[in-house]
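Appendix C reproduces, verbatim, an entry submitted by the partner laboratory led by Prof. M.T., so that reviewers can inspect both the input and the predicted structure.
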Amino acid sequence: MELGRDFLGYNEDHKREVVAELMQGDPSGMKLCEPGIAADELAGRFTAWIEQNPEAATEPLSVGFTQMLEDTCDK
């Protein structure tokens, strides 16, 4: 199981790949974001969110990703 701290160590290409998979795996969370948002934009947002929320470093990526969507996309 990948954790937030693992994600922070990935290179930018791998972050985009992981976020693209997380986007597909969380369609209800993605509805909170603007339509058509790109994986690279969300990868940057997710990186910053993990850095600002240290508890996310020890959570599974899918949990942190959903929390990040709720925190940063919910309008």
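The chain has a mean pLDDT of 94. Additional entries are available on request from the coordinating office.
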